[in-house]
Amino acid sequence: MSSNDIWAAYEKRLTRVSDYIHDHLDEELDLNRLSEIACLSAHHWHRVYRAVHKETLAMTVRRLRLHRAAGDLVRSDRPVRDIAARWGYPNLQSFTRAFSAAYGMPPARYRREGPHRAYATENQEETTGMFDVTIRTLPPQNLLCIPHTGSYMGIGKAFEALYGTLYSRGLFRPGMRMIGLYLDDPDLVAEDKLRSFACVTVDAVPAVAPPLEQRTLSGGDYAVLRHQGPYANMGAAYRWLFEAWLPASGRSIRDEVMFEHYLNSPRDVAPEALLTEIGLPLQPDGDTAS
């Protein structure tokens, strides 16, 4: 069997396990059960997983659960104790320790004072000039993507599948950039119907087969907001961009999808050090939407 055949088999196993992890994060995840899904012994499966994903299975589960918990803290008024229990922590104390270690402050304080609060629009005149927004003219960009339907907080599932597929098919290149495309407004579309794409950039588009798809990010003018901090805070940044920056900018929106460019990875840096560029497509300067 060739190395390509071997990694093609691993691709399917990686995808099955990754899907299971993301779909059952609020349940107890048993290593033996995951090994059964992968059709490998626990000993071998763990090594294959780490070789591809560059982190252990336990690290993945802990990171994803805390990411979902941060989203609950920002976007809901659930009691912190209930959030801890939902994401697998036996008590509030253990959740607080884990969350503080990852996010730099206890969960209750994060809800009140986390970096998402900087984007509050109650005082728009004071905040309009506070954040790093630049106007850039970007060329069209070829992308390889895997589609995702559901909460934008869950697009990591599609990125896991994307990188597993790229590695197994020999398509991964070091210069690829991570791009997220978001087609729907989460304030208008039900969460389970939100459409997005996990993507990487490519210079030349290779022949692709499912689950990979080819898309093109439109060129033109974009307002690019540089966001630092957890992905759970991104909703507040989007609202600030539309509610505070856009009215004061004198620019009009162009009918293309928004994008997120991920400058680093949650596997490599702490949540507060994550850097993301949010791209809002704009009409050419001087043009207005019809």
From TrEMBL:
It comes from the Bacteria. Keywords: DNA-binding, Transcription, Transcription regulation. InterPro entries: AraC_E-bd, GyrI-like, Homeodomain-like_sf, HTH_AraC, HTH_AraC-typ_CS, Reg_factor_effector_dom_sf, SmbC-like, Tscrpt_reg_AraC-type_HTH. Residues 15-113 form the HTH araC/xylS-type domain. SUPFAM superfamilies: Homeodomain-like, Probable bacterial effector-binding domain. GO terms for molecular function: DNA-binding transcription factor activity; sequence-specific DNA binding. PANTHER family: TRANSCRIPTIONAL REGULATOR YGIV-RELATED. This is AraC family transcriptional regulator.
